[in-house]
Specification:
The chain has 297 residues and is mainly alpha-helical. It has two domains: 3-87; 114-290, Intergrase catalytic core (hpI Integrase, Chain A), CATH 1.10.443.10. 55% of the residues lie in helices and 4% in strands. The protein has 13 helices and three strands, in the order αααααααβββαααααα. A three-stranded antiparallel β-sheet has the order 1-2-3, with no helix packed on it. Strand 2 and strand 3 form a beta hairpin.
């Protein structure tokens, strides 16, 4: 089995059995190809025969110019690839088993205050069709705590307003239902009634909720651009992204007394540990909780 065959088989496994997104699969494949390139001068360095020493040399060559976070992602991806080969009995060992990832601190995205979120939304020019759409987009990001990929793939058929929910297709094509608040529901309905009928959706985007002026679904890059332009418009000093709205959604819920398990379900996290990483409360809030609930207050 050569590298191309192994990568093709692994790619199918990621897509079909693990249900990963296209971006995630491409990221895994890119890392494997990077290792392949770094050991290409060794004819014996095939995926099922490569030994630990050769792998170590290849990994060192591949990661020496990367940040610690990128190194950790690279190493994790290769471990997964060789675990797959062991599972399929192409190998009896994982040559990455003893390779340690850099220890990373918890890197948290900035939290936007409710005032900053209001300021960003208020900065949108609502007199234009795109402006009305963008208001609905930002309200949906923050009001439902969506990932940017979940927002861009949201469909009209995913809206269950009578029941008070929207259906979201998350990582690994895992479905969840997220409650929708009245403000978000109202703005989506305004967009559907006054803006979207004027957009001519392309065949592939007939059911896609948010469209660009050419009738295609919006890209992740376009959502980033919209947010960056608004941040610049209000002179916001924080470096933000679509994920900042999701993180703020979760943080504000926790600060207002929501249970962490409920937030986990709303965000679509498999593990509560992942949800905990998103949560960072300032000491003032922690002190307030302690003073309110501890018997020795």
């Amino acid at each position: 089995m050569n590298w191309e065959q192994a990568i093709s088989a692994y790619k199918s496994y990621l897509q079909i059995e693990r249900g990963l997104s296209k971006n995630a699969v491409e990221s895994y494949v890119y890392d494997i190809q990077k290792l392949q390139k770094s050991v290409s001068n060794n004819a014996k360095a095939l995926p099922i025969t490569i030994d630990k020493d050769t792998v170590l040399e290849g990994v060192y060559e591949s990661v020496k110019s990367l940040s610690e976070r990128s190194q950790a992602r690279f190493i994790s991806g290769l471990k997964s690839f060789f675990n797959y080969l062991v599972f399929e009995k192409y190998r009896t060992d994982n040559p990455m088993e003893m390779v340690e990832s850099p220890r990373l601190g918890r890197k948290l995205p900035p939290v936007l205050s409710t005032q900053e979120i209001d300021a960003l939304i208020d900065a949108i020019d609502r007199s234009s069709l795109e402006g009305q759409r963008n208001v609905a987009i930002l309200e949906t990001l923050y009001g439902c705590g969506l990932r940017v990929s979940e927002l861009t793939t949201l469909k009209i058929s995913d809206l269950f307003f009578e029941e008070g929910f929207i259906r979201v297709l998350g990582k690994g094509n895992k479905e969840r239902f997220v409650p929708v608040n009245p403000t978000t529901e109202k703005l989506i309905k305004v967009y559907l009634k006054t803006v979207r009928p004027l957009q001519k959706p392309q065949k592939a985007a007939i059911d896609t909720l948010f469209l660009n002026r050419r009738g295609h679904g919006l890209t992740r890059a376009m959502i980033f651009t919209i947010i960056k332009q608004l941040a610049k418009k209000i002179a916001l000093e924080k470096t933000i992204s679509p994920h900042s709205f999701r993180h703020s959604f979760a943080t504000h819920l926790l600060e207002n007394g929501a249970d962490l398990r409920v937030i986990q379900q709303l965000l679509g996290h498999e593990s509560i540990t992942t949800t905990e990483i998103y949560m960072h409360l300032d000491r003032t809030h922690l002190a307030g909780v302690l003073n309110q609930y501890h018997p020795r207050k």
